[in-house]
Amino acid sequence: MPVLPTDDSLPPANEVATASPPLPRWARAWDQLMASLPVLLMALLAAFTYWLVRSTPVPEAPREAAAPRSDPDYVMQGFSVQHYSEAGLPGVRLEGREMRHYPDTDRIEIDDVRVRHTDEQGRLSVATARQAQAEGDGSEVRLVGQAVVVREALSPDATDPLAQRLEFRSEFLHFFVDDQRVESDQPVTLVQGGAQIRGQALRYDHSRRVLELTGGVQGELPPAGRRAAASS
């Protein structure tokens, strides 16, 4: 005859009601993955931030503006440049064997230079030298080496000394073309007619009717007969 279990050998009623079978392996793996997902996301975010910092270009420090070039940026051989006035009339004409432009000072350097200019009265001025430094528009020329500036006579019968032919010779002449001025701080020889006058400095300003030779001025005048012939 079978023996019935006593109440003590039976499992508790609540244990019977809540007991469940063990989870399959894939479910346990999924639970572990979900539990570690926040950690993985934080690691990925940190790695992305590090890559982003390394990949972002670092701004360069402000650079100083490059100094203008001290060597010529262009050279012209056997050149001739004609400038015109605002009214369209021929103004200054620059010619030379070679011209070099220096961008650092925006100056023009010319070898074997020749400058021609006709003023409003029709008076021609011609300047020559072994070398010259000029402004871009030719309004101002520094003549160096066997410099000569010739202002032709306003008319063949001009009696005004400043309207007659004037020739200046020096190793340096500063020729202000538009202003009709010639200056030098070096020995100068003035030639007018048959006369030659030498000085240590020159200031000639046609608009103000000023011609000054200073510093031990010496002159050579032609004989009286030649002076009379030249003035007749």
Automatic annotation (TrEMBL):
The keyword Metal-binding does not apply. GO terms for molecular function: glycolipid transfer activity; lipopolysaccharide transmembrane transporter activity. The chain crosses the membrane at residues 33-53. Pfam families: LptC. GO terms for cellular component: outer membrane-bounded periplasmic space; plasma membrane. It comes from the Bacteria. Keywords: Cell inner membrane, Cell membrane, Membrane, Transmembrane, Transmembrane helix. Coiled coil: none annotated. NCBIfam families: LptC_YrbK. This is LPS export ABC transporter periplasmic protein LptC. It comes from Caldimonas caldifontis. The gene is lptC.
